[in-house]
Design goal:
Number of helices: 7
Largest sheet: 7 strands, mixed
Shape: globular
Subcellular location: Autolysosome membrane; Cell membrane; Cytoplasmic vesicle membrane
Radius of gyration: 18 Å
Strand content: 15-25%
Order of helices and strands: EHEEHEHHEHEHEH
Membrane topology: Lipid-anchor
Structural class: alpha/beta
Organism: Tachysurus vachellii (Darkbarbel catfish)
Number of strands: 7
Keywords: Autophagy, Cell membrane, Cytoplasmic vesicle, GTP-binding, Lipoprotein, Membrane, Methylation, Nucleotide-binding, Prenylation
Protein name: Ras-related protein Rab-39B
Length: about 210
């Protein structure tokens, strides 16, 4: 049984086949790594909770999508109901980096008029000698897409936690600003039984000033 959570964010992992999306998820949710991984068929599901701030627990509902073209009709149906996306590429695979724009464009088109919060993830950072994508290139692409960039390694457990936490925090901050909210008929964000009422920073300050307690 899940412990109480204030909000649930639905997150989807995007990117070519073999970039390591499943490895990232298994490391993040189960703390394990395996050199042998079967290709994802359609969509796999994972879950884990994070404490974003005191008394605020966020449950992440994580969807691992297949990167192969033949599963695209299945995975596209999951785009619209997601609030966050990790755009994952393999630092040792130049083509997977070049395909990031295509993934970003495809998802953006399917979720209109809504928007998704992204983070760009360069995976397999432990394979230094096999690297085909420079950090500067990846950071430039992230800047052009208006997203954060993180380099990770599921094998070495490097920055895996940070990648998911940064994305969750960005979504949470947008909720506090009123730009994202839970809505009927949309599974991107759901409120728990103990959901916290969020106010923009200015409004929160005014409420504190007017409080007589």
């Amino acid at each position: 049984m899940d412990s109480l959570w204030q909000y649930q964010f639905r997150i989807i992992l995007l990117g070519d086949s073999t970039v390591g999306k499943s490895s990232l998820l298994k490391r993040f949710t189960d703390g394990v790594y395996s050199d042998v991984a079967d290709p994802t068929v359609g969509v796999d599901f994972y879950a884990r909770s994070l404490d974003i701030e005191p008394a605020v627990k966020i449950k992440l509902q994580l969807w691992d999508t297949a990167g192969q073209e033949r599963f695209r009709s299945i995975t596209t149906s999951y785009y619209r109901n997601s609030v966050g996306g990790l755009l994952v590429f393999d630092l040792t695979n130049r083509k997977s980096f070049e395909h990031v724009r295509e993934w970003h464009r495809e998802v953006t088109e399917h979720i209109l008029p809504h928007h998704m919060v992204y983070i760009l993830v360069g995976h397999k950072s432990d394979l230094i000698r096999e690297r085909k994508v420079l950090r500067d290139e990846a950071e430039q692409l992230a800047a052009e897409l208006g997203v954060r960039y993180v380099e990770t390694s599921a094998k070495c457990n490097s920055n895996v936690e940070r990648a998911f936490e940064l994305l969750a925090r960005d979504i949470y901050e947008l909720m506090k600003m009123g730009e994202i909210s839970a809505r009927d008929g949309w599974d991107g964000v759901k409120s728990g039984l103990t959901a916290k009422v969020l106010y923009p920073a200015e409004e929160e300050a005014e409420r504190e000033k007017s409080c007589n307690c």
